[in-house]
Amino acid sequence: AALHHRDLASTRHFVGGKVPLGLKRKALRVLVTGGAGFVGSHLVDRLLERGDSVIVVDNLFTGRKDNVVHHFGDPNFEMIRHDVVEPILLEVDQIYHLACPASPVHYKYNPVKTIISFPMNSFPFLFNNAKVEAKINARFLLTSTSEVYGDPLQHPQVETYWGNVNPIGVRSCYDEGKRTAETLTMDYHRGANLEVRIARIFNTYGPRMCIDDGRVVSNFVAQALRKEPLTVYGDGKQTRSFQYVSDLVEGLMKLMEGEHVGPFNLGNPGEFTMLELAKVVQDTIDPNARIEFRQNTQDDPHKRKPDISRAKELLGWEPKIPLREGLPLMVTDFRKRIFGDQDSAAT
Ligand code: NAD
Ligand code: UDP
Fold first, then answer.
1. Helix axes 245-257, 38-49, angle to 10 degrees
2. Short-list 123, 120, 104, 110, CA closest to 33
3. In angstroms, rounded to a whole number, what is the distance separating the alpha carbons of residues 194 and 261?
4. pLDDT at 20
5. Which of 285, 129, 163 lies closest to 222 in space, CA to CA?
6. Pocket of ligand 1 contains residue 109 by CB under 6 Å
7. Cβ of 84 less than 6 Å from ligand 1
8. Fewer CB within 10 Å, N side or C side of the chain?
9. What is the DSSP string of 96-147?
10. Distance from C-alpha of 17 to C-alpha of 10, rounded to nearest angstrom
């Protein structure tokens, strides 16, 4: 009977998002900033599939209409072309904040905007959106990054590690920008009592990644398909841990629906040197692909691997798809986008 006195608008009222038998779950209104991007568009797919209505706010800086075009015409889907550093007020139940240039090439393009505009300008508006609905506890989820650990002195990285970030380097606009975003998220949480969630995302790959954004997996896959040499930066012994995008999306949704603020590492603990990654790409696409060594970029972190014990224990989440299984799924998508459907059908 008590349920009648509550707004049953969301699964949030039910632990783990499970609706008691006999009660139909009411759809949520969800804002996804950066929803036309790589990760965002996969998240949008899942939210719509679940029956929610989704508003995407994206300025298409690195995102593409193509990533969400299959939802055009769906009454539960709306896309607004808008820069999140400008005010916008939308009444929603949940906000997934993904809008941000994510690859080193893109975030270094306008570093001052990356560090100042994103956290400082976009947050007051987004939090204002959350506040409109504060009566029903709207939630704000920040997609932070493993880059908050900088060039880590602790390995693997646990959420309690504070990191080793160069405050004046070429990557700082992104690393410090995301650290500031985490600070603001926690200050709004403590100060304004807003419900927040923080995800620290480790390197993620999959279909719809920007083809020429300079990230290592997209570079190697595109290079191997185009019969160009794989460009390994430095000695290739630096490591990263690569997570398939569907695993990340599941983690983000579990985090949003769960009881814990975080931060949570969301990543696949499978760790690879860049030379090992090149080998996986060769095995998957072209065993004869050549490797060419290039000078490394400044302040490149030497190693990175998530400790995901916290997410396993508190969210009941862990990634399922190893690199050798996920990579072919991305290759199929890249083949189509690089060569067009006809050629890919022939290969
Ligand atoms: P992406 O570049 O594909 O997506 C980012 C989206 O945000 C794009 O659609 C872009 O157009 C949009 N955007 C950028 N600036 C905007 C602005 N001012 N206003 C409105 N929209 C804007 O990148 P992604 O890989 O999907 O990353 C999504 C989020 O996840 C980012 O916040 C990124 O920092 C974080 N993240 C990603 C990874 C990864 O490996 N992919 C790792 C760590 C963190
Ligand atoms: N890298 C590489 N070749 C490339 C692009 C990147 O060897 O063509 C290396 C880069 O030096 C870094 C790692 O791959 O050590 C991951 O780079 P990416 O830009 O994908 O992600 P991030 O540095 O943000 O983890």
1. 60
2. 123
3. 11
4. 52
5. 285
6. no
7. yes
8. N
9. EE--S--SHHHHTTSHHIIIIIIIIIIHHHHHHHHHHTGGGT-EEEEEEEGG
10. 8
Q: Is-contact 141 107, C-beta < 8 A?
A: no
* pLDDT above 60 (res 187): yes
Q: Global pTM?
A: 0.92
Q: Given this model, what pLDDT does residue 119 score?
A: 72
The pLDDT value given to residue 193: 82
For helices 274-284 and 216-225, the axis angle rounded to 10 degrees is 40
Which residues are identified as catalytic?
A: 174
Ligand nearest to the CA of 292: 2
- Report CA(103)–ligand 1 centroid distance (Å): 8
User: β-strand 239-241 against 271-273: which pairing, if any?
Assistant: antiparallel
Which atom of ligand 2 is closest in space to residue 297's alpha carbon? 11
- Complex-level ipTM: 0.98
pLDDT band at 105 (very low <50, low <70, confident <90, very high): confident
| Token reading at 127 | 């939090």
Helix (H) or strand (E) holding 55: strand 53-58
| Mean pLDDT, residues 317-337 taken together | 97
C-alpha 226 to ligand 1 mean position (Å): 26
For residue 201, pLDDT over 60 is answered with yes
Average pLDDT over residues 146-160: 97
Output the residue whose Cα is nearest ligand 2's atom 16: 216
**Is it true that the peptide bond before 156 is cis, omega within 30 degrees of 0?**
yes
| Ligand 2 center from residue 297 Cα (angstroms) | 9
The pLDDT of residue 14 is above 60: no
> Is 199 touching ligand 1 by the criterion CB < 6 Å?
no
Pick 3 or 184 by higher pLDDT.
184
- The Cα–Cα gap between 216 and 209 comes to 11
